[in-house]
Amino acid sequence: MLEISNLVAGYGGVPILRGVSLSVGAGEIVAVLGANGVGKTTLNRAVSGLIRASSGDIRFDGQSLIARSAPDIMAAGLIHVPEGRKIFPNMSVFENLELGSYRRARANRARNLERVFGIFPRLRERSGQFAGTLSGGEQQMLAIGRGLMAEPRLIIMDEPSLGLSPLLVEEMFALIARIAAEGLAVMLVEQNVVQSLELAARAYVLENGAVVMAGSAGDLSRDPRLMTTYLGM
Amino acid sequence: MLKLDIFLSALANGLMTGAVYALISLGLTLVYGVLHIINFAHGATLTAAMFAVLIAHTVFGLDPYLAVFVLTPLFFALGYGVQRFVINPASHGNDSNILLVTLGLSIIIENALLAGFRSDTRSIDVPYGFSVVEVGNLFLSVPKLVAFVASFVVALLLWLLLAHTDTGKAIRAVAKEKTGAALSGVNVDHIYAVTFGLGAACLAIAACLLMPTFLVNPRIGNAFVLVAFTIVVLGGMGSIAGALVGGLIIGVVESLSGLYFGESLGQIGIFLIFILVLLFRPTGLFGAKA
Ligand SMILES: Nc1ncnc2c1ncn2[C@@H]1O[C@H](COP(=O)(O)OP(=O)(O)O)[C@@H](O)[C@H]1O
Ligand SMILES: [Mg+2]
Known about the structure:
The complex is a heterodimer.
Chain A: E1 2-11, E2 14-24, E3 29-33, H1 40-47, E4 53-60, E5 63-64, H2 70-75, E6 78-81, H3 93-100, H4 109-119, H5 121-125, H6 136-148, E7 154-158, H7 166-180, E8 185-190, H8 193-199, E9 202-207, E10 210-216, H9 217-222, H10 224-230
Parallel strand pairs in A: 3-8, 3-9, 6-7, 7-8
Antiparallel strand pairs in A: 1-2, 1-4, 4-5, 9-10
Helix pairs in contact in A: 3-6
Chain B: H1 2-35, H2 42-58, H3 64-91, H4 95-117, E1 132-135, E2 138-141, H5 142-164, H6 166-176, H7 178-183, H8 188-210, H9 220-235, H10 240-261, H11 268-280
Antiparallel strand pairs in B: 1-2
The complex binds adenosine-5'-diphosphate and magnesium ion.
Residues 40-41, 83, 158-159 of chain A line the site of magnesium ion.
């Protein structure tokens, strides 16, 4: 479904990603792991059209995404739930969710709102509240909920557990498992190795802008190199 | 008794002028709130709109209250096009460049108008220009009353647009979080241009409301925008409600200080308020804390 090959991208001519190749199949959960600063967010931004790749290719359902705009890419069903949530703080929770279907799945807005409220009952309770007043965990739920409003075929989640308490991290991973069980493909970008590998079928490990390990989640979680060498733990 | 009547009539006049000030400020505050820049071409755009009303009347015989239905969409389209195809590409996403580009535009517009119309002051004659209605003991100017009501209707429509339409929600989303908006499918460049277009459309409406009682020359817009800038600061940069309330306050202050200190000192009260606001409440009446 998503095929990334030899992707080179960065900022102001300085490459951060140095030839990344990876793929995510339909309905698959794939983890992309790596320590802080290895280029995970840069990868997500290149895939979703926020920054331009300088070479390589990104294909979604066989169509190249290179040079397409972020709104066009999301309209194809590739939804990016960004690091730092990027919700609209000056708008209500309800309006944030509505805007998730600004471009895609607008006709199913009412139905999808019910679905999101079913997954995140907390958001229903808070629906009239300004999003900027939510707690960190609630903001993360809102960011994911806004993404789900567009009926993603593939959802990229950038560090959904970042800044959450251990208990909330558990809850977040359980919710992601539940969303993935509905059949959409998930690219889970995380530093949280153990829980990500429990959830994912396959994983890639990034270091210094390149894939250094790849394989089934089971194999990787038994590989001693993963923790020591690449994640510096 | 006579004193009270004079006071009340100055108050009513101030409110009516203030509503048009509010309308002019709406565009300025909207563009600031969304694009985070001061549009230096705002005054020149108002001047251009007033000349457009003049031309519509003298060349095409169109009454300003009918011209509004032509000029509003026209100025929306112009504002949209200029932002999307001139200001945005020329600024390369750099805010200080945008300032310079809008400043350049204002110089071009003003000089084009000077070349076309020289610095003469002109006005139009409409049959209702001096009509009044009697309300209690007050005589209210009909065109000013129309301007007052119409400004409120426009402010209400703008609020409805921002609060209840997807485009309005996208405008508010882009104002605070453009990456999140882009990832939700919002074309940020389009929304910037729409915002600019709305600002220009407000000016076209203001011009149609002003021309029955006002005169125009190639520099007239700047006088209004100086006042509008005070209103935007008083109301809170980026606040729609602030522009409305601020406009009314400034209109009344101008009118009353004109009454008590003389016509030529009417604007002193405005700048006194401006300085007091900056000293004691820099975020304005409705502005959020920075
Ligand atoms: N907007 C930016 N401009 C310049 N460099 C950046 C920018 N964002 C990230 N970087 C650099 O790119 C590298 C990778 O960052 P990032 O992709 O955010 O890593 P990760 O998400 O894995 O923590 C870092 O060295 C970071 O400093
Ligand atoms: Mg990151």
